[in-house]
Amino acid sequence: MDFKTIELLIVGLINALCVMLAVWIYYSNHRATENKLFSIFSIFALLWIDFGYFSLHLGDKLCILLTRLNVGVVPIFFIIFYLFSLSFSGQSIRKSLINKTVVFSGMLVFITSTFTSLVVKSVVIHSWGTSLVVGSLADFYYIWIVLVLGLIIYTQTKQLRSSSGPEKSKISMFLIGFFVFAAINIIVNVLFPVLFHTNQYYKFGDYSIIIFIGLTAYAIMKHQLFNIKVIATETTVIALSIGLLVEILLSNDLTEGLLKGMVWVLATYGGYVLVKSVKTEIKQKEKLGVLARKLEQANDHLKELDETKDNFLSMAAHELNTPIAAINGYLSMLVDENLCGPINKDATKYLEQIYGSSKRLANLVKDLLNVSRIESNRIHIIYTEAQMEDVIKQSIGEVAIKAKEAGHKLSFEQPSHKLPQTWMDVPRITEVLINFLGNSIKYTEPPGKIVVRAHADDGKIVVAVEDNGRGIPKDKYNHIFEKFTQVNVLKDEVKGTGLGMFISKNLIGMHKGKIWFKSSVDQDDHGTTFYFSIPVVKNKPYDPHENEGALFALKPASKEDTEKVKAELDKELGNSGPVDRKSQVGEDKSSQIVVRSSEEQSAEDKKEESSSSKDRSEGQDTEKQKEQANSEKDSNEVDNRSSKPLDRKSQIGEEKDLQIADRSSEIVKPQSDTVADAEPQEKKAQDVRAR
User: Which residue has the higher pLDDT, 255 or 638?
Assistant: First the structure.
């Protein structure tokens, strides 16, 4: 196959593609301006290619005319190209000065290059093609083309910067096709003549226009490919039907015609069914697309609702903290301190039940608040250098009484070698351990055995809490560390919120550690072991929030907040006059912290509390008699003051102490204008022992 045949096939293929793309794009949306302009643009590109090809094959007489038409059609081509680029990028085609200038100057260049010899003076015919002898205005012709091309690139790149999403992808595809077309023309029309001293490859630059047209058509129809599929199917079926019909007309005899007629009928019917099925498929896909968009919108709405829910939980937990702290404080004074004198056994029993329920409610609020802060990334780690054995002992002390009351044996197996010190957030790790131990206590039938172990392993400290409880079914393994997950919870048991393991997993993750478990439900060997590991850190990690305090701790209150809390407490509790009980509240908090340290210490403290409570009761009775003798003139005032409520400052201080009781190793240092008086724990413990 010689070069002329190859060139003829290339030109024929370009003509077919240009016509097909022009028709498809136009009928896909014949009302769209960009579709109309693209079809006209494709037709002028086809004329440009055809005039250049036929100028070599229709004789010398037509050569100069076809060459001038080939050169003259280019300005019209670029006028359409410019207008199409505006519509393609979403810009309106207005009657602006620039647009008018491009159109009128292009028409002038077209007339000059087509009907005069000012641009193409003559043509020299070679064996490989033709070369031009240019006229006096040829430079103006090329300058105009360069200016219009520059204007097109400027408008498209400007629109590209301000666009996003599918529109940006569409313009990018247009520019890619344009630059490929320009690069090929620069190579064959500039570099090749310099390197090989010939212009015979210029035609390949002209033929590369099909790349640009194809990419532009794809960019237009990228979101309308279903319409193209229908058109392509219909075109194929019609072409096949016409071909078979021609075969019928060319039949040699009646029998052959009947057979071909039957084939034509079957093929036409099959094509009809095919087109119908394609249309049905397209409608279904369009419906699916609409449903997918609605689902995406619903998903976005659900995300907004979830965020609103988190904000509500956070706000509700904050607002609930104040009344719960007040309830716990006054119940503690009634049950633990006996500040109102002797209470009969039935009342004491009911008050203790209320006190226990109030504590569970406080834990629920604390868990919800912690979850909210974890999910909104409003929590960070405050590192201190500590010994893991000490943290474990402190955690065991926190739950020792609870384990004993449940009938379990709780022990800590000391590691054979002392564990290395590491930087960690001690209150957070303590909270994780208490969650582990609390689960073991709740899910182990008495008498149970709970063992805490720890060891160092390859630069990590691994802690395990093992029990011989019920075990976890395998179908629940993937849900243990999810929110609100509880396993084997009986209806008559009150277990908690199901948030402990979720919080623990996130706190360990903040330490760059791991958390896992092993469990068995076999009758002979049942039980669960929860593990966590944290890396041994020798140097204190960088903390950008070092001076901000722990987000779980209560921040010092401002004067405005303090006055607001005072007013709320006055309204809720109905108190008219404060009596300063700050020292008693401080003693009460410290005694609770010391009690949780160990069983023996708690027994001693209980004895001390019992004797000191009797002394205080006697002193309070004497004080009441004096107060009643001095206040006979105003009996209502005596009645209001007989219950001896706490000073508002001490109430707020107590609320703060109760909210951070689970983080007993942290001490929040209030500012000078803070009402809450946060004293060091050691001093408070000394006050308890002295008392």
Answer: 255
